Here is the input.
Amino acid sequence: MDYRREIDGLRALAVLPVILFHAGFEAFGGGFVGVDIFFVISGYLITTIILAELEQGKFSIVNFYERRARRILPALFLVMLICIPFAWFWLLPSDMKDFSQSLVAVSGFASNILFWRESGYFGTAAELKPLLHTWSLAVEEQYYVIFPLFLMLFWKLGKRWMLVTLGLVFVASLVLAQWAAYAKPTAAFYLLPTRGWELLIGAFAAFYLSQANRKAFGKGLSEFGGWLGVALIIYAIFAYSNTTPFPGFYTLVPTLGTVLIILFATQQTTVGKFVGNKAFVGIGLISYSAYLWHQPLFAFAKHSSLTKPSSLVYGVLAVLAIVIAYFTWKYVEAPFRDKSKLTRKQVFSLSLIFSFTFVSVGLLGYLNSGNLWRFDDGVVKYFELKNDSDIYVWDLKKRLRKSSFNSEKIKILVIGDSNSGDLINVLNFVNLDEYLSISSLTIYAGCGNLYLNRSKFSHFIAADSLKDCAGVDDLLDDENKDLIRQADKVIFASSWSDWEVDLLEESYQNLISDYGDKFWFFGNKHLDFSPIDFIRLNGGASFPSSVLLSTDKAKINAKLRDLLGDRFVDPYLSFCEDEVCRLLSDSGDLLLYDGFHLSREGTIYFSSKLNNFIRLLKNER
Here is the structure.
């Protein structure tokens, strides 16, 4: 196919916003759409090559995968290789275990599935994953397992039938993406069925431009169409944010913008000259390597510091990613694409060797729980405790969510986030099953544990939490209101924030008005201590026996006490004195395993300290 400068320029419009978005520059809130631009470009270029070879009767699936291996694997394997020693030095066992899993998943082009199962794309946990960005490569490679085979099989039926079939797949994928962007946002973001339509948009452009008898566009139409495409991309980059439902209909804006540039921008148009200028083309040529390098640089910068890197640091790292990308392109990408320097056999052999190596290293790290002989037994035991406790906090709460009450027992409804999970575990430990019947509703931290219409407080919810908060239990739903009505006692337990407390008086009055005076509120119990940060600084897990409480959370508890009086339970009174809080049990085990959630040992300790409160629940009805 003929070289098109504007396509390389488009790559620059794709990679720069992605890098700046991940660097945290707020102006580029929609910079993640650069990945969608890449999808369309890829769909266009690959389809153009395949169609040309099918027309000439020389398409080979082996040649196709050889080209993909030369294009994708050398730079990818280099980045993975460089990441390993940095991960070994800087990642704590839990993060190293996750990284080890990602080495295996990336080697099999399944990292999108792994990251879908682990977390969303926009959360803090995701930002710490050095290979997070490889999800898009996995989507593309999964697509290219199916797409060339489809074209080969349907070629003899003619382009019309091919286009009809692809059109049906396109519509199904887009409709599924629109539904899943709201119903299953994490799956929608990461998985091929909801992303395939983006690659197909590029494929349709290739089908159109491959027509030998198509009419050329007029100068005026080409200029208008090309600049409209640029405008759509720029709009998405600066107007979208991580709260924009993706990849549904909103994704049509940057993807159609990309297609318009592909269709209309040529070097005979001003838009083609703009997109194809030397600076954009230069960055476009190294865009793949720049994309590969930026995420590990940002992630390891976060891991190497207890505080979030500054904008200056991110800016320097972004420039560094471009610089390293140039050398990677020149000395790794370009040589491996040169068939005179490496034969097909050598390419496939090296691919298998490196894949096997990364899978082996990944399995070793995973099976060693990410430790790899780097930390003492105390650290290993701590992360075993953390992994167990992360499950323990939520396990019973999830099983009791919206469970029916036993009418012969005292009916207790516990509403809130993971802190309510702690409280449920305490109630369960004291073995009051003969007295209590417990049910639960879930309101995640920061989502507003309030008996109010959500429109009154949605503007307080952090932007990166809005999607998760959309899936919590709404206390004004009839089913949930019925549970509140049935309960003898209702306990709200959360990691309370200032804005929630400010709205709590109205919420409390609404509850009393609708259901009577049967409500209790369980306060914050955060410590000014992070075991993980302590391990980072000290290299071991010899934790202090006591630490300071969180003054910010203690002030919120004081406001709750003033508002609620004897209906408020302050956990700090159970394990703190003069702002100094007990961290370890008599046997030396952590009571709050992460600084704010109870371990099993902490559950035992708190159950003995909340006797008066538990007695009230047991005796009052």
User: Anything to note?
Assistant: The two ends are 79 Å apart (CA to CA). The first strand starts at residue 410 and ends at 416. Residues 377-619 form a domain with the Rossmann fold fold (CATH 3.40.50.1110).
